[in-house]
Structure formats: structure tokens, C-alpha cells
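Researcher: We're teaching a course module on how sequence relates to structure. For the next exercise, students receive a sequence and then see the predicted structure as C-alpha cells, so they can try to spot secondary structure elements on their own. Here is the exercise chain.
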Amino acid sequence: MATASVTTSPAKDLSSAGATLQGSYSGATGEVRETGFYWGTSSAISSLTNELYAGSGSGSSGSFSAAISSLNPSTTYYYRAYVVEKNASTGKFEYRYGEVKSFTTSAPAAVPRSYLDCYEVPAVSGVAKGSQGSESGVGPWWNYTTGNSRQQIVSHAFTYNGKQLRNYTALIDADKKAPLWSAFVMHSGAYPDKGVGRNDSWRNDPAAPASWQQSGVSGYSKGHLVASNYRQVSVEANKQTFYYTNQAPQYQNGFNDGVWNSMELAIKANAPSSSSDTLYVVVGLLYEDSKTSDGVPVPSHFYTCLMKCKFSGGRMTSASGCAYLYSNEAHNGKKYTDFITTIDAVESRSGFNFFANVPASLQDAAEASKTPLW
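Model: And here is the predicted structure for the students to work with:
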């Protein structure tokens, strides 16, 4: 029979969203092929159905651990360690388990509310603090629950010259498996071009559930919402533009490589540099048909809403705006300026209230304007 004695050790590195589970074994007389944990939200063994692989074993004794993430804050979880050991008599591998232990994730870390109060972030109901974390070599992230259980806000930040800067804030939709919008700032002084290039490491966003994300669909490019070229200030800032939560299926020829690219280049070229001007941007998607690819909804339209604001003494003194709205198809022979519209028009079709934190005395006229900003 299998002889290993398995111990479930206390969890460590507890946070509001994760923990590191630990275990050990001793006295094994057969080959230990696998170590790991089973976990769940109930102490009943039958409920510990989530498996977390820790690695293969070595020798008659050893210790093992594995990190678990995307957990809910202030929640108690239960787990037990296991090893899979070969029975010398039967030649079969058998499971050996440790006792059930528990840990409780911490309360949500304080999140920078100011990241939701930025001038360009659209109004969202039912927003509450969620979790906070950081990806090594990339930067910190925060998420926020909303009044819709199938939608979640995420924010990403990075450090430059000793100062933490917000990269972008996005509303992620579980059913669309894409961001409905992404809101961010364009300012060549705050986000200078250091020529770090494209760090094409597309991957899951740690701030959102993996099941809410898609890695690309047949027949379409991964269309950036926050362009890679917008965040050339550091490798960390650029890597954040390659999260799956910053792209959606976009027609390539004559759109992604055409008018959309031309518009992105124009926005970057006209990003303010003075301390008195800032360009605020919301890029988003419409789903006005039922087209899918690989079972993933494909946006019918992409839009970009722009608002350029002037400040004096820390107070906003003026604002001007416009928007661009494109159907998700080839636009050969067209210029990006052919698709200009008003922010009001995009709000009407999307259902969102953009630039909600801009004073109404300035916001209304800017959102009704169809005059190009440059």
C-alpha cells in the first residue's frame, strides 16, 4: 500500500485575492508522482473539488507549495494537501491526503478612489471596492465590482520617475469577453515616448477573471483599445497594453491597419505637453448585431471619444470634444476624419455617460460638438 504520511500546512502570503498553500509528506516507500491541493469554500471533503497542482515529488519526503489567485476578499477557503504515490505491491498510483485546513482572505485593500473619479471615466452604478494585486515586472492593479455581476472595472498603474501613474481604467464584460470601454489620459509630458517598442506578450489580465477573457478569435486581429504606441514610457507600461482585457476582435485590412491606425497616430501626435492642457480619451465597442467568431461576440463598431481640457490654477476652464465611430469592417479609401461624430451620439448608442466628472457647464457643449480637435 501507499505509505506516505501527508501534512497540510498553514497557508501563507495571504492577501485579499490569494494565498500560498503549503504541504509536506514523509515516509514514502514508492515513487511520488504528483503533489498538490484540493480546495473549495466548504469544509466538506466532497466540496473540495478545485485542484491545484504543485509539482512532482522527490524521495521519501519533501515539502511543496502552490499559489492560488483570483479569490474573493474576506472569504474563508478550505484545502487539503495530497500526494500521488506508487503502490509497490499493485504497481498502481494511489492518493494520500492530509487534513483539511482553512484560511481567510483579507479585506479589500484600500484602492485609489481617484482612479474612478478621473474626468474621462464613464459613470457606472453600484461600484464598490474589490481586490488589489501586482504582477511582477509589470505593476499594480485594482478591480471594482459594479451593480452588474457580469461586469467589473479594472485599473492598471505603473511607476515612472518615482511616481505612480494610472495607465488606464476599463469596464470588462464577462459575456462579451472584452472591455466595453477603456478610459485613459494622453499627455506627452506625463507619458513621454521612450521608444520601448512593442512587448507583444499577450496574456490574461490578473485583475479580471480568466473566464471573462479571450485570447483572440478567427478572422480578426486583436484590436488594441489603449494603443501600444500610446504607452512607450516604460516596458512595464507597454506590457499592460497587451492584457487580453485591452483588445477585442477587430477587422484587420482597411480598418485596424487603415483608418484606426491613422486615428491612433493622430491622437498621439496631438497629445498635449503643457501643464495647462490634457487630452482625455474613451475607446469602446458597440454590439449592435449578433455576429460571433469561435463562439465569441464580435463588436459591430469601435468608437473613440475625445475631450481636450484646459486648466488654470488647478481648475478646468474650458473643454472641447468630438468622437469617431467606425463599423467593424474594411474602410478602404477612407480617412479617419470621415467618421467624426459627437460624443452625445456615441452616448446614445452605447448607453454610457462619458466624461461624467467634467463640470456640466463645460461638458454639455463639448459633447455636442462635431468639430475636430485638430
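Model: If you want an answer key for the exercise: The radius of gyration is 25 Å. The CA atoms of residues 31 and 343 lie 66 Å apart.
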